[in-house]
Amino acid sequence: MNPGILEIAAEMTPNPNTLKFNVNRVLVPAGSLNFPDKASAKGSRLAEALFESESVLGVMAGHNFITVTKNPSASWQSIVENITRTIRTVLESDGPLFSQGPGPSGAPGAGSGANGDIERRIREILDNEIRPAVAMDGGDITFYGYENGVVTLHLQGSCSSCPSSILTLKMGVENRLKSLIPEVKEVVQVQ
Q1: Domain span at residue 79?
Q2: What is the per-residue pLDDT across 146-181, written as a single tens digit (0 to 9) for each?
Q3: Do residues 44 and 100 lie in contact, with contact meaning Cβ atoms separated by under 8 Å?
């Protein structure tokens, strides 16, 4: 992609109702921003603009991509051009794209106390191995907590409603964490 000219490239994800729109701009410096519905987008220009389409059910912004989830009854062929045009219009205008910074990456106080070392190791593996892989498919995973051997995560973007999200969570994330951290017994998803 050419850094001088705004480029937008739509990319399929494992979720048939979600497309990843790669852009050659930094949208979110670190982490991700998740807008699971129109109400959550209030004050965030890009997300609000995308939700103007009745077909858009969810928006997530990552470092240099926007993931858009559509209504299953809508066809990508009928809405992808409008979504691309909306992204271009907002990105080429002045002003902040989002009213919020990246959301919290876990429960308050996470990383301290008796589970502090285990939580730190879980976050390291998530940040260095798992989140980059999930971002390639237009998603993100947020750490919510660890207690009694159970890791709680939130799947966002293309992962949140993907038919293979349970497979990703159990076969991918859970197996990896269990292989590196013997204290981890299970990984569950929070909505």
Answers
A1: 8-91
A2: 999 999 888 877 666 666 667 777 778 888 899 999
A3: yes
